[in-house]
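Researcher: Here's the sequence for the chain we discussed earlier.
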Amino acid sequence: MYDRYAIYSSTEEIKETLTAEVPEGYSPSYNAAPTHLLPVITSEGRMGISFFHWGLMTKWSNSKTSISAKSINLDSELAFQRPGYKKQIQSHRCIVPINGFYAWKRVSKKQLVPYYFFSPQMPILGIAGLWEEFEDIDGTVSHSFIVLLVSSSSSLIEFENKMPAILDSNKSRIWLDSKDLEENEKLIASVRNDHPVLSSHSVSPSIKNIENNYPDLIKPVPASDQLGNYTLFN
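Model: Thanks. This is the structure I predict for it:
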């Protein structure tokens, strides 16, 4: 499950890279997590940033249990097979701008070591996603999004068998502009073998606590597990 990422670029950098206006409500996050209000660009609002909650609210808003992976990540192969998701793909596509994302490497049965993935050539990347509008029992309307996953490339296969559908600026534009299901399916399927080159390094297990949000979270540190115990594995 991918449940953390970072988006910290300046408003000027985001505007220049994604050709989208950034409203005053934007603030950098080094530990973006499910339920947080985060910047997205939708196919309906192509020229501006919106702020949506990460995690489809219809799946978790009325639940007293913790948010599940199914509400924040969606297997793209499944999305293109099911009628409900197909409808969303045609009308509710979005791009989630990121500077990088976190993944946990299992080094033993009980040890997970966090790593930060980013592109040295492309400071801002886009993850393909879908969004929804949700009205609660009080009539309050909110918006949320889910991240699409594809089969992992060689750089991520030792972490998870799925990876975020990472798009460069050109593919991001295609995803936002095209309503053609077949074209979009081919676009997302191509990500596994054709995505921006990624670098990675181990980071502090402090990212596990969603209250932590500061620049040092993305900096390299010696590999340690989720409890802070140093490990020889890299």
